Amino acid sequence: MAQTRRHFLQQVGITGGAGVLYSTMSALGLTGLAETAAFAAPTRADLNGRPRKHVVILGAGIAGLTSAYELLKAGYQVTLLEARKRPGGRNWTVRGGASETDLAGVTQRARFSPGQYMNAGPARIPQHHVTLDYCRELGVAIEPFINQNADAYLYREGTTALSNKPIRHRTAKADVYGYVSELLAKATDQGALDSYLTVSDKQALIGFLTSFGSIANKDGGFKYTGSGRRGYTVEPGAGTESGTTESPYALSDVFASGVGSYFSFEFGWDQAMMMFQPVGGMDRIPYAFERAIGGEKIRYGAEVLGLRNTSSGVEVTYTTGGRPRVLSADFAICSLPPQIAAKIPSNLPTPIVDALKYARPTNAGKIGIEYGRRWWEEDLRIYGGITNSTLDTGNTWYPSTGFHGRRGTVIGYYNTGTNANLYGALTPAGRLERAVAQGTKIHGEVYGREIEASFSVNWATAKHSEGAWVGWPSQTDGTYQRLLDPTGNVYFAGDHLSHAIAWQHGAMTSARATVTALHHRVVTSR
Amino acid sequence: MAQTRRHFLQQVGITGGAGVLYSTMSALGLTGLAETAAFAAPTRADLNGRPRKHVVILGAGIAGLTSAYELLKAGYQVTLLEARKRPGGRNWTVRGGASETDLAGVTQRARFSPGQYMNAGPARIPQHHVTLDYCRELGVAIEPFINQNADAYLYREGTTALSNKPIRHRTAKADVYGYVSELLAKATDQGALDSYLTVSDKQALIGFLTSFGSIANKDGGFKYTGSGRRGYTVEPGAGTESGTTESPYALSDVFASGVGSYFSFEFGWDQAMMMFQPVGGMDRIPYAFERAIGGEKIRYGAEVLGLRNTSSGVEVTYTTGGRPRVLSADFAICSLPPQIAAKIPSNLPTPIVDALKYARPTNAGKIGIEYGRRWWEEDLRIYGGITNSTLDTGNTWYPSTGFHGRRGTVIGYYNTGTNANLYGALTPAGRLERAVAQGTKIHGEVYGREIEASFSVNWATAKHSEGAWVGWPSQTDGTYQRLLDPTGNVYFAGDHLSHAIAWQHGAMTSARATVTALHHRVVTSR
Q1: In chain B, at which end, N or C, are there fewer CB atoms within 10 A of the end residue's CB?
Q2: A489, A309 Cβ separation under 8 angstroms
Q3: Gene3D superfamilies, per this entry (chains A, B) (predicted)?
Q4: What single-letter DSSP state applies at residue A525?
């Protein structure tokens, strides 16, 4: 089925153009659904007999692959140069047998069991990102990514009754929403908000708060006294067992603990559930692109040494296995990270190189820990989701797949900035040791038992990436903008040239914009 | 793998007893996790040479199957009598080819495509229910059930700006939480809550509200003015596209609309994400029980005509294909719905029959509509989840599986009580017509297009069920309690004898309690 479907869709993509599929999707309009800036894939017909152009693409990450895929639909000649031995760039799924040497010269070999893996880079896809459209078009099967779980934990260091112990998301929410509702209902009822609310506003608001916070009515002083939403110490069940709950934490402790600081993460445009992941690993996407493009068009192990605009096109110098080569083409799309592109000798004007240097790389780190037993399901009844803490590990992810299996791979930390640098400075063994010590604070001794393998990534020292993603001091002061138009015959693309930085959506929409601009230039040329 | 694993686990179950597996799971304790009342499966060793007892079980629904499965572990002889031709009772997955005649004499034949199905009864499992333990033990593969989706809709009839049109959950939440935060921050800052809050409480609370509601700081009057959490009309993407958002709805409209009334559903103990479903249909559970028990122990098409306590055991009269039969056994477990059990001629004392009659059946209805195109994904970018409305359809469920496939089956309504009765009174064609008319209000004309099949269930007129579940006027006034102890050699079991009514968890925990009591009696007899 998958095979047939993939081929069918690729056929539609190649012949009708992704635009045909995409315009169907864009014909939404019913209500409140974001439209991604209109994109019509280039078509061969547009060329109207013009000669076939050759585009060299620097980098076979998501932006490079998307660019190549879309250009091929219109019959462009495409050559991708990729320094790594695989497609995807930061979209990297680590499986058993993988070996990686970082910029500090440290080599790690992954010893994950068959079927186990970690997505070292991007790992989740919101429903509205074009990433899912490419999954559909390329036949990449998807499954839910569990970004939110009421039974995962919040862990806050501190001195309150809620501090230094794991609190279930559901418990924290029940108490915070309970007290917020009690306080706002009281203030409303006492007339404190009469200058903002009509009588019917007040009625409707209090009605909402009663349900939202599970609080008493007016006669009961709108009091929050807990509810089953917090969870049970003994679950409701047979006969007379109606369940045993504990009293809520004290209001002062709840707010002092900071336990509510993570709630809004789940409301985010690109983090609210539902989220998805490819079945089998995020790199199913780059490998599907590779198949659709044709692997022979990608030169792996090709490090770019120079990039020049020439009078008739571009000239790229690169090396594979020590041998320098020169490639001439009509156009280049540079999809390398800007901090790397800036270092490549070129005849690009200084303002362009300065714009590339304007990007500020951010670090992020992840560790995958394979366990021989899924204790988070069996002992803690946590089926996927994220435990958020103020420890330097940041977020712990339980696997979104393989439920009830024998093994599972937990992301022991996914952190950024200072915390990522702290772990990045350690040896791989040191990272695991520290992650286990921190995870044990949350999960108990089980966190250190039955560990079968681990692998960690520190994106700041990852060869050919040198960072997890970039931030711009500004995206509106004119510097960033220099990279949005071509410089001679050189175009740029990448998530860094979008407002969806660090997302594949950013790389894909940037690639689409670049391909559109390039194609427009070609079809409007004399 | 599944095969091996299932057999391994069944072996553990049969030899070590589910208790071995279960006690591992119960050894949790870390924090805040509900423990289900301790259960140790009966073991053969307990019998200590006593003669093997024969238990006849009325009904091969979830309670009956669980009872049989657990008793078999200790070597009891077990016979199940089931009026239907299949196991599971209300756990019923309808696939193409299924045919069902209801109590009104109306026959429906399901014409779903291969691979398409609807779970007519239970359809979701919370992480903490023992249902998942049985899935693990029996080797039933599970996958996420999508009970919450920020991109599904809320639809409220009325006269506000938000009425009579679909509003995304995320939009409603952003506005409600925004205004709640603004109002509470103002009241707090103005001192209206000073009798309840210390200075540091106030600081911490306002800090929380700023993040929770995405509101301005004090200098900005704590104003809520919308945010990307509401969603975008143009999504952030390439180049300078930072996304376009709309202004929030007016405060009065937001609260008057009642758009927040459904939020608390998602905080419920047994409805908060994550939730799960068996891969391929909920009936994978009863069929796995059937395999584990041995199909030869279940007599299908067996309608019970009479039940008698005798001096030495029980005597059950039943009919298969018109021929009356008598079965004698040491004990009976009656797991039939109480409203049906009450009608069976028996020598049960009047207070027991009265207790059975004390149960009040509730109706519920569902329609499955198979579409030839997954327009909810392609056009609306809704990948699973629930649209909640004030229309008589109640809730609409988008499928939790088969993403990006060619077809999909939407639950067009899942409603209860009056609304269920309203649809139940219609012909199957009439139900579809009405459901489509209502669904079109929310989703537009697409809702009526490319319909390939549909099937509806009205539990009140479902043979052998006569209701979706029951409620008790009271579970503490002594009447309900009469059914928790055996009457002579007759025991009762079922979700109705639990505080998890309408959940398989209720049926399973009730069965466990009943089996435990029966076994205790046997092993403590002289």
Answers
A1: C
A2: yes
A3: 1.20.1440.240, 3.90.660.10, FAD/NAD(P)-binding domain
A4: -
What is residue A17's predicted lDDT score, i.e. its pLDDT?
A: 36
Q: Is residue A158 part of a domain?
A: no
Could you give the count of Cα atoms lying within 13 Å of A134 in the half-sphere of its Cβ? 32
Query: For residues A498 and B19, which has the higher predicted lDDT (pLDDT)?
Result: A498
pLDDT digits (tens, 9 = 90+) for B331-359: 999 999 999 999 999 999 999 999 999 99
Please indicate if any CB of chain A lies within 8 Å of the CB of B158: no
> Does a structural domain hold residue B1?
no
Q: Which among A183, A264, A481 has CB closest to B184? A: A183
Q: Does B445 touch chain A (CB under 8 A)?
A: no
| Boundary-marking domain end, from A242, A267, A292 | A267
The reported pTM is: 0.93
pLDDT at B40: 82
Neighboring chain A residues of B509 at a CB cutoff of 8 Å? 237-238, 241
pLDDT in tens, B235-249: 999 999 999 999 999
Task: Count residue pairs from A and B with Cβ separation < 8 A.
Answer: 375
Indicate yes or no: CB of A499 within 8 angstroms of CB of B236: yes
Q: Between chains, do A238 and B381 touch, taking CB under 8 Å as contact? A: no
B314 compared with B12, residue with greater pLDDT: B314
Q: Are residues A368 and A414 in the same domain?
A: yes
Do B267 and A197 count as a contact with CB atoms less than 8 A apart? no
- Residue among B146, B263, B276 minimizing CB distance to A212: B263
Asked whether the ipTM of the predicted complex exceeds the cut of 0.85, the reply is yes
* Structural domains counted in chain B: 3
> Domain span at residue A304?
44-85+300-358+472-524
Q: How confident is the model at residue B38 (pLDDT cuts 50, 70, 90)?
A: low
Query: Each residue of A90-131: pLDDT tens digit?
Result: 999 999 999 999 999 999 999 999 999 999 999 999 999 999
CB-based burial of residue B468 (10 Å sphere; 0-12 exposed, 13-18 middle, 19+ buried)? buried
Alpha helices per DSSP H over A111-245: 130-138, 169-189, 199-213
Are B341 and B369 members of one domain? no
- A176–B183 C-beta distance less than 8 A: no
The first and second tokens of residue B360, run together, are: 């009040």
* Residue A1 burial (C-beta neighbours within 10 Å; 0-12, 13-18, 19+): exposed
List of chain B residues whose C-beta atoms are within 8 Å of the C-beta of residue A268: 228-229
CB A466 within 8 A of CB A337: yes
pLDDT, greater one: A16 or B510? B510
User: What pLDDT sits at residue B36?
Assistant: 54
Among A33, A165, A379, whose Cβ lies nearest the Cβ of B381? Answer: A33
Cα–Cα distance, A427 to B201 (Å, whole number): 42
For residue B96 the two structure tokens come to 């193409």
Do B354 and B477 sit in the same domain of this protein? yes
Kindly report the nearest CA distance between residue A456 and chain B, in angstroms. 27
Q: For residue A294, tell me if it sits in a domain.
A: no
Are A448 and A376 part of one and the same domain?
Answer: yes
Cross-strand bridge partners of residue B145:
B275
CATH code (residue B229): 1.20.1440.240
Averaged pLDDT, B90-113: 97
Supply the CATH number for residue A504's domain: 3.50.50.60
Q: What is the mean pLDDT of chain A?
A: 93
Chain A: give the shortest CA distance to residue B128, in Å.
6
Q: End-to-end CA distance of chain B, in Å?
A: 46
Q: Indicate yes or no: CB of B151 within 8 angstroms of CB of A200.
A: no
Q: Is residue A30 part of a domain?
A: no
Instruction: Give the residue from chain B lying closest to A253, CA to CA.
Output: B201
Beta strands in B185-230 (DSSP E): none
Per-residue pLDDT at B19: 34
Cβ contact (<8 Å) for A193 and B170?
no
Placement of tokens 């979008």 in the chain: A498
Of A229, A240, A258, the CB nearest to B267: A229
Q: If you average pLDDT over residues B447-467, what whole number do you get?
A: 98
Are B334 and B426 contained in the same domain?
no
A111, burial (CB in 10 Å: exposed 0-12, middle 13-18, buried 19+):
middle
Contact with chain B for residue A498, Cβ under 8 A: yes
- A372 and A340 share a domain? no
- pLDDT tens by residue, A371-416: 999 999 999 999 999 999 999 999 999 999 999 999 999 999 999 9
Residues A385 and A432 in one domain: yes
